[in-house]
Automatic annotation (TrEMBL):
Domain AFP-like: 291-346
GO MF, one example: N-acylneuraminate-9-phosphate synthase activity
PROSITE patterns: AFP_LIKE
GO terms of biological process kind: carbohydrate biosynthetic process
Span of the signal peptide: none
Species this chain originates from: candidate division WOR-1 bacterium RIFOXYC12_FULL_54_18
Pfam families named in the record: NeuB, SAF
Superkingdom as given in the UniProt entry: Bacteria
Gene3D superfamilies found in the cross-reference section: Aldolase class I, Antifreeze-like/N-acetylneuraminic acid synthase C-terminal domain
Taxon lineage: Bacteria, Bacillati, Saganbacteria
SMART domains: SAF
Protein name (database record): Pseudaminic acid synthase
């Protein structure tokens, strides 16, 4: 199952993924409304996360199992409580994916352990996402790769050596279609820490498609990534940041997602090809370039000078490069002001 089947690649507009994450706020109705809003905004896919609190961590609220970093958007929670709050109930996946299909967008998910992969295989997801925090979980990656389906993998937190090992493990286990997403795993992340110049390097080094999983506020980093060859853009998505939710603070709202789809498409169109020649559309404007015109009436036998020979618009006369060579040259006929200069006048 190739990525081209899903219109993912340099020959297609950037593939925009709306990441629901925990922004459903534990309401299935809200989750379905998010799907509808994503589809209406023009997103190509809606992504879930498939896990339970028990498959993610231990039910402890002390030490390293408690989020004590005051800069974290999840400060004051235990990991277990956070994942309980953010998890998408597994029984919701089927109705969410069903609505995605009905609305013409792709529904898929990020599995966080092997049981999630088995579950998602039952639902026949078309491809998989691997999150940054799991990109060194080689058993999980091998499990996903063995499905033979494309993998979109975020590169956040990984060293080059770790990423090389991960890609190697995926390919050896059967992955033929891989997209690596440049990702900065801080929430929200700063544009200064996005380092999207890595995108061409990912593509060239690992011989695969590359994109961005963007946690910055706004659209600038994602649009710039398109200019660097990103074929996939992933952004967290919510109905309204004011509604709150575990990822709401760094999520796009519907109008912003629509703008991302439109502007990333325009950026892709603007890439074009290396060209130094006027385009077909530009050729209609060539007549408005500057050229040589007679600026005063001239009698036969008189010479061109700086008063009667001008470089002006439009472009029906000789090119401006002939100006110096024509000064002092005699004309062989009477010429009226406003006449484009021709060689046969000399």
């Amino acid at each position: 199952m190739s990525l081209d089947k899903f219109k993912i690649g340099a020959g297609h507009r950037p593939f925009v993924i709306a990441e629901m994450s925990g922004n459903h706020n534990q309401s299935l109705d809200r989750a379905l409304a998010i799907v509808e809003a994503a589809a209406k905004a023009g997103a190509h896919a809606l992504k879930l996360q498939t896990y339970t609190a028990d498959t993610m961590t231990l039910n402890l609220a002390k030490g390293e199992f408690f989020i004590g970093d005051k800069k974290s958007p999840w400060y004051g929670s235990s990991l277990y409580d956070l994942y309980q709050k953010a998890a998408t109930p597994w029984e919701w996946h089927k109705p969410i994916f069903k609505l995605c299909k009905k609305l013409g967008i792709i529904g898929f998910s990020t599995p966080f352990d092997e049981t999630a992969v088995d579950f998602l295989e039952e639902l026949k997801v078309p491809f998989y996402k691997i999150a940054s925090f799991e990109n060194t979980d080689l058993p999980l990656i091998r499990k996903v790769a063995k499905t033979g389906k494309p993998i979109i993998l975020s590169t956040g937190l990984a060293t080059f050596a770790e990423l090389k090992e991960t890609v190697q493990a995926a390919r050896r286990a059967g992955c033929r279609d891989l997209v690596l997403l440049k990702c900065t795993s801080s929430y929200p992340s700063s544009p200064k820490n996005s380092n999207i110049l890595t995108i061409p390097s990912l593509r060239q080094t690992f011989k695969c498609q590359a994109g961005i999983s963007d946690h910055t506020l706004g659209l600038g980093a994602a649009i710039a990534a398109v200019a660097l060859g990103a074929t996939v853009i992933e952004k967290h998505f919510t109905l309204s940041r004011a509604d709150g939710g575990v990822d709401a603070a760094f999520s796009l709202e519907p109008a912003e997602l629509k703008q991302l789809v439109e502007e990333s498409g325009r950026a892709w169109e603007a890439l074009g090809k290396v060209s130094y020649e006027p385009t077909a559309e530009e050729k209609r404007s060539l007549i408005y370039k500057r050229s040589l015109y007679v600026a005063q009436d001239i009698k036969a036998g008189e010479t061109f000078n700086k008063q009667n020979l001008r470089v002006i618009r439009p472009g029906y006369g000789l090119a401006p490069k002939f100006y110096d060579g024509l000064l002092g040259k005699k004309v062989n006929r009477d010429i009226k002001k406003g006449t484009p200069v021709r060689r046969e006048m000399i």
